[in-house]
Design a protein that fits this description.
Helix content: 10-25%
Structural class: alpha+beta
Distance between the termini: 26 Å
Shape: globular
Largest sheet: 2 strands, antiparallel
Order of helices and strands: EEEHHEH
Number of helices: 3
Radius of gyration: 14 Å
Strand content: 5-15%
Number of strands: 4
Low-confidence stretches: none
Length: 97
């Protein structure tokens, strides 16, 4: 599995099983309070990290957008014209280290 710069999987521990390639220990998704959430309509050229930068001022918070949109299995699943939920910044930063 390729991991892209800014991917939420960059800091995920990697394990090797006998006879298998490296695999990720995938974390559970966070369910955010959506009271003050907004929506973003995807346009040509949008990326998850670009949307996070525009929404939060930090592209590394793109994991929060992925967690809030179960239809997105990875950064590559964005479709032009689709509407995605952007959780409120105040909710996202509660889970940052």
């Amino acid at each position: 599995m390729a991991v892209f710069a800014g991917s939420r999987y960059l800091k995920t521990p990697i394990y090797a099983r006998k006879g298998q390639a490296f695999i990720f220990n995938v974390r559970n998704k966070i369910k955010f309070n959506q009271d003050n959430a907004t929506y973003h309509t995807v346009v040509i050229g949008d990326t998850i990290d670009g949307i996070a930068l525009k929404s939060y001022g930090n592209p590394h918070l793109s994991w929060a957008i992925l967690d809030s949109n179960p239809q997105l299995m990875s950064e590559l699943d964005l479709e032009v014209g689709s509407s995605i939920l952007i959780p409120p910044y105040e909710e996202v930063v509660k889970y940052c280290e």
